[in-house]
Write a structure and sequence with these properties.
By secondary structure, the chain is of the alpha+beta class. It contains five helices and ten strands, in the order ββββαααββββαββα. A four-stranded antiparallel sheet has the order 1-8-9-10. Strands 4-5-6-7 form a four-stranded antiparallel sheet. A two-stranded antiparallel ribbon has the order 2-3. A hairpin with a 5-residue loop joins strand 9 and strand 10. 26% of the residues are buried.
Amino acid sequence: MNLITATSKPALPRTSPTPAPSISRLDATKIKTPFTASPTEGCADDSLNPDIETKIHTGALIPANIIQPGEIIILLIKPSPLYIVLAPLRILVLIALATVLLFVTNQYLNFMSARDIVILGVLLILARISWQFIEWLSRTYILTDQRIIRIKGVTRVQVYETPLSNIQQTEVIRSIREQLTGLGTIAFATAGTGFVDAYWVMIDRPFEVQQTIIKTINRYSPRNGPSSRI
């Protein structure tokens, strides 16, 4: 599979966090980027991208107490709804091909009705898409002023989190399917591992989201000095 990657290694100067009201509820309609850089602060970034908005849905599948008191949510997003179809696309194509093959074979062997073959194929496709929809519901990606968080899992919930100061590299990876649909996957590499630890899979506007992540790290990470730059 052909991949296009865009790697970013932001410089992380020491800055003073801008006070912002804490978020205690996760049922707000929208939360915009909670701050804009002041010209007097000397930050590497002018402001976080105001076009990136967090949509927080009531009843989102988020483990209790995942957000700590006083922690500011910068982004709370999910994969694009296209993920429901694109992620299992190969399996869906295989099911469709198997249905066609079964239909053609049945013309000679006549072991079941054509209608039953079509119904079987449609049911299998719907079952696979339904499972992928549930899996999509389980995925949530959160950027706060302190951490990167990824939540996923249907039968077994997995929560990945790491402090912003641990992020060494972010990378946008785009498969052919993602390029054709304007989506992308963001990979996170942290200090001490030497490889990618987590992915934000098939999100909308991946390069804008990546820039918001970088600017958040630049503003909030406690690291400073040449040795802390990545």
